[in-house]
Amino acid sequence: MPGPVPVHSAVPALATPFLVAPERPTRRNIVIYNGAATDLYVSFFAGITLTNFTIKIPPAYWGTFARQSVYTGPIYGILYAADPGKFVQVTELVN
């Protein structure tokens, strides 16, 4: 039986709420890298703001959600300030 398959995406670094990763019932792990020059705020709910979020990822750092019961719903993000030409890098392991 084959193991999880990596799925990679690059999301433009925006200062307005954006979808970091879509709902994916087969998600087993996710790593989010902040390639922008400002803090990235990440949340499991669509109403994300700079003061209402789940985790904050500083520039050039990453966050991961790797647990036995990883969240498989949509993940949202917002940056403190837009960073044109920069991206939030997302890698998911899916079955």
Written description of the protein model:
Helix content is 0%, strand content 45%. With 95 residues, it is an all-beta fold. It has a 4-stranded antiparallel β-sheet with strand order 1-8-3-6, with no helix packed on it. Strands 2-7-4-5 form a 4-stranded antiparallel β-sheet, with no helix packed on it.
Output the number of helix runs: 0
Radius of gyration equals 13 Å
For the record, the CATH architecture stands as: Sandwich
Task: Give the ordered list of helices and strands.
Answer: EEEEEEEE
Largest sheet: 4 strands, antiparallel
CATH topological fold name: Jelly Rolls
Specify the helix fraction band.
Answer: under 10%
How many DSSP-defined strands?
Answer: 8
- What percent of residues are in strands? over 45%
Number of domains: 1
Termini Cα gap:
10 Å
Structural class: mainly beta
- Provide mean pLDDT, rounded: 91
Key features of this structure:
single chain, about 100 residues, mainly beta, Jelly Rolls, 4-stranded antiparallel β-sheet, 8 strands
